[in-house]
Design brief:
Elements (H helix, E strand, L loop, with lengths): L2 E6 L5 H8 L4 H6 L6 E5 L2 E4 H12 L24 H22 L9 H12 L5 H10 L4 H23 L6 H19 L6 H31 L1 E6 L1
Parallel strand pairs: 1-4
Antiparallel strand pairs: 2-3, 2-4
Helix pairs in contact: 3-4, 5-7, 8-9
Length: about 240
């Protein structure tokens, strides 16, 4: 069965899950030590409760990076919009599943590999947002994020970002008739409601084009992720 499934389970060991995936014997699985609880399995790759907890903390403190999927899609995870902590956790988990599906797909294409120099530059950009390297490393420590893990996540972000830029965003063509329709049918009524002066079309056509490109890009990404989900075997363990 493909798609998304829910089930209930107790605490699971990562080692035991790996043993099952690798076809190990039951004896080896029994010897595994408890290290974390699995909250989801996405085409054979696990997301643990520890990973989810860390992701929630980063979202709540705005100490996170975009992977090219969740970020550009208008911030699908908003703590203020979630009615309960469980609902918020599920929103974050769904976003993590989307990111994992995208990465699993994109990593098959070596032409989208990223340069290590680009990763180093992005890492240093994040460092320079803090007063000192020590302050940056302390922030990483609070979020239970190691420099190696951050570099890995930055590489994932860049890899998926390269793919969606070339595959989806760069091929979007907005015609002038579409921008003029938005100008007349969307912007003009908004300006009239606000009692504001209507700007000339030439003053806002680039802004309108960017809005339309962003909307079409989000639609295409949503369709892509929906198709990946239909083909995937996703198991979510309720807690």
């Amino acid at each position: 069965m493909r798609g998304r499934r829910f089930t209930r389970c107790g605490v699971v060991t990562l080692a035991a899950a790996s043993s099952l995936l690798l076809g190990a014997t039951g004896a080896r699985a029994q010897e595994a030590q408890l290290v974390d609880r699995i909250v989801a399995v996405v085409d054979g790759e696990v997301i643990t409760l520890g990973q989810l907890d860390r992701a929630i903390g980063r979202v709540q403190t705005n100490f996170s990076i975009d992977t090219g999927i969740c970020g550009p899609r208008a911030g699908p995870v908003e703590a203020a919009e979630a009615e309960t902590d469980d609902e918020f956790a599920r929103q974050v988990l769904e976003c993590m599943i989307d990111d994992m599906l995208a990465f699993q797909h994109v990593r098959r294409f070596p032409q989208f590999d990223v340069l290590q120099d680009d990763i180093d530059a992005e890492y240093q950009r994040m460092v320079h947002q803090y007063d000192s390297r020590a302050a940056f490393e302390e922030a990483l420590k609070r979020q239970r994020w190691t420099p190696t893990e951050l570099r890995y996540d930055l590489e994932r972000e860049a890899l998926v970002g390269n793919y969606v830029q070339i595959r989806y965003r760069d091929v979007i063509d907005v015609r002038e008739t579409e921008t003029r329709r938005y100008y007349e049918e969307v912007l003009r009524p908004e300006m009239e409601r606000e009692g504001a002066e209507m700007p000339a079309f030439e003053a806002v056509d680039n802004m309108i084009e960017a809005i339309l490109v962003g909307a079409e890009y989000n639609r295409r990404i949503d369709d892509w992720i929906a198709e990946l989900r239909r083909r995937a075997d996703i198991v979510v363990f309720l807690w």
